[in-house]
Amino acid sequence: MKKMEERYFTIGMAGHIDHGKTSLTKALTNVETDRLKEEKERGISIELGYAPLKLEPGVFVSVVDVPGHERFIRQMIAGVAGIDLVVLVVAADEGIMPQTEEHLEILQFLGVERCIVAISKIDRVDEVMLELVTDDIKERLSNTVFHEAPYVALDSLSGTGIDELKKLIGTELQTMDLRDAYGSFRLPIDQVFSVQGQGTVVRGTIYEGVVRKSTQLTVLPKGITVKARQIQVHHEEHEQARAGQRTAINLGGIERTAVKRGDVLVDSDHFLVTDTIDVALQVIGRKFAPLKQRTAVTLHVGTSEVMGKIVFFDRNELEQTPHEVLCQIRLDEQIVVRRGDRFILRRPSPVETIGGGWVIQPNGGKYRFGTETISMLRRHQQGTPKDLIMDALNKSLLLDLQGLMQQTSLGEITLKETLEEGLVSNIWLEIPRYGFSLTKTFTKIGVELLARLQQFHEDFPMRTGIGKAELIQSVSVNFPKPLLEYSLNLLVEQDEIQRYGQFVALARFSPHLPNEWRARMEQVIGTLEKDGFQAGKWEDYFIGSPLPKTEVAELTAYLLDSGQVYRLREDTIIHRTAFDQALNQLQLQTGRSFDLKQAKEILQLSRKYMIPFLDLLDELNYTRRSEDQRYWMEDKT
């Protein structure tokens, strides 16, 4: 019960260089986050610093001090990607600076909605100057999501305003939703280092799920299996860490050089590795050099920084616009993202932020330029969980739970609940061991299978049916085989088709002579019946006949399969009438057994027909031969 009450958050310190973020972090947490020698000497933060903030019992907060210098903007993006609340630090003696403006844009693009403005270094200004700076900040924030942000004036060295800031942080966090600790574990890695005697350690903010000591994990996108040897939260060892916590994990099974910032640590196969993403992009609110079709861009998502090209479907050039742009980014490297993940887009040269937004579809495809693609992207953008599942099943036809989680980026609980609703309403069906498919897909498969069977019966009316494997193969280009197997079973249950061993046919079909050749074939069959045991070679019955050889072969198989004739020898068949008459004569005029001499006397057949006929009786299990005697398999009645 105690664990259910615990709440975990990550707070980011953002602002211009030398505005006091690191000093404020130390005043709040009593932890020095500048740990590199260069940082201490130069007085600026290059890498991400972090520290625990103690508030009320049950609330655990990590403070991330992100770099403020323009050259370290990519580290700043990696740091704020996982935060719940930002403390925007503005020095009272300088006010909002260009770097502060860019930080504000990045924070909004990354979906950070809660902000506290901390006006630092108030000991350097008088009350009039402080009031002017405060008014200027409020004006600058008036058109942002932070327009209602609370303010606190403070001085980190004297401690003025620090307690008030702590209270504000606690108040803001009380109303915030918790990160998903029940889904699959995901940790975008922002720091990698080695510890002597322990090996590789990775650090980051847990986006979702829970990680436990000794758990087997995977480093994506490389797919390297590792083990969580040790878990630390702010230098304290823990058995587990959960969503919202800043954590360090000692990994077993991987070298330091095999993992880097931007990789993602996960505990399941639910996450998709991709190099093409469909996105909703919002550009910055000031003019920038137009971005042409397929221009090189740098994508920052999670802790990844990847080069790629931007692809538009409704324009050939992107300029400053207040409207959201639906487009695609094709990356030079694979990344790990889910639907809804936030990103920043920057131009690599000259370096500048272009905009940001969120991932609509992690597994983008190749689409045509035009309104049809934009309409499709808009449907994906606005889609409900049901819509997302339907889109995924329209695209892939058959997906298991893992595939659906990858394609839709839905959480496991939401996905399972939506799937259950869809099964009840018959929107999709579940194929045991294989996954889910839309009901309309089964309808389409059924139509194709029935049409293929109908065509087969028209082409080969004398055959019992088509081989099941052949039927499946004939339509497997368009549909997965498990779907076809399941559809066949459904059609059998619905009495649409019938099975004969490995053959299938339409339920109302029975083999018959083709109309085109019926008269000719009936004539041959009649002649064969008339000839009885004096039948000649089977091929001789077609001398002078216009029947094609293929039809002769079909007729032969049809007569044999339907039991209308029997093959005596390789080149000779007899009509069933002759066979039945001979069988009845033998049964009536013999005892429990008989030999060749007796049979010849009764049937008056030459050895040419007699021996093949008796062998046929053995083959059909009417008789059993023992030396020179043949025994009836059943007592005659």
TrEMBL record:
<dbReference type="InterPro" id="IPR031157">
    <property type="entry name" value="G_TR_CS"/>
</dbReference>
<dbReference type="InterPro" id="IPR004161">
    <property type="entry name" value="EFTu-like_2"/>
</dbReference>
<keyword id="KW-0648">Protein biosynthesis</keyword>
<dbReference type="InterPro" id="IPR036390">
    <property type="entry name" value="WH_DNA-bd_sf"/>
</dbReference>
<dbReference type="InterPro" id="IPR009001">
    <property type="entry name" value="Transl_elong_EF1A/Init_IF2_C"/>
</dbReference>
<feature type="domain" description="Tr-type G">
    <location>
        <begin position="6"/>
        <end position="177"/>
    </location>
</feature>
<dbReference type="GO" id="GO:0003746">
    <property type="term" value="F:translation elongation factor activity"/>
</dbReference>
<dbReference type="Pfam" id="PF25461">
    <property type="entry name" value="Beta-barrel_SelB"/>
</dbReference>
<dbReference type="InterPro" id="IPR004535">
    <property type="entry name" value="Transl_elong_SelB"/>
</dbReference>
<keyword id="KW-0342">GTP-binding</keyword>
<protein>
    <recommendedName>
        <fullName>Selenocysteine-specific elongation factor</fullName>
    </recommendedName>
</protein>
<dbReference type="InterPro" id="IPR027417">
    <property type="entry name" value="P-loop_NTPase"/>
</dbReference>
<dbReference type="InterPro" id="IPR015190">
    <property type="entry name" value="Elong_fac_SelB-wing-hlx_typ-2"/>
</dbReference>
<dbReference type="InterPro" id="IPR036388">
    <property type="entry name" value="WH-like_DNA-bd_sf"/>
</dbReference>
<dbReference type="InterPro" id="IPR015191">
    <property type="entry name" value="SelB_WHD4"/>
</dbReference>
<keyword id="KW-0963">Cytoplasm</keyword>
<dbReference type="InterPro" id="IPR050055">
    <property type="entry name" value="EF-Tu_GTPase"/>
</dbReference>
<dbReference type="Pfam" id="PF09106">
    <property type="entry name" value="WHD_2nd_SelB"/>
</dbReference>
<dbReference type="Pfam" id="PF03144">
    <property type="entry name" value="GTP_EFTU_D2"/>
</dbReference>
<dbReference type="Pfam" id="PF09107">
    <property type="entry name" value="WHD_3rd_SelB"/>
</dbReference>
<dbReference type="InterPro" id="IPR057335">
    <property type="entry name" value="Beta-barrel_SelB"/>
</dbReference>
<dbReference type="InterPro" id="IPR009000">
    <property type="entry name" value="Transl_B-barrel_sf"/>
</dbReference>
<dbReference type="InterPro" id="IPR005225">
    <property type="entry name" value="Small_GTP-bd"/>
</dbReference>
<dbReference type="Pfam" id="PF00009">
    <property type="entry name" value="GTP_EFTU"/>
</dbReference>
<dbReference type="InterPro" id="IPR000795">
    <property type="entry name" value="T_Tr_GTP-bd_dom"/>
</dbReference>
<comment type="function">
    <text>Translation factor necessary for the incorporation of selenocysteine into proteins. It probably replaces EF-Tu for the insertion of selenocysteine directed by the UGA codon. SelB binds GTP and GDP.</text>
</comment>
<keyword id="KW-0251">Elongation factor</keyword>
<keyword id="KW-0547">Nucleotide-binding</keyword>
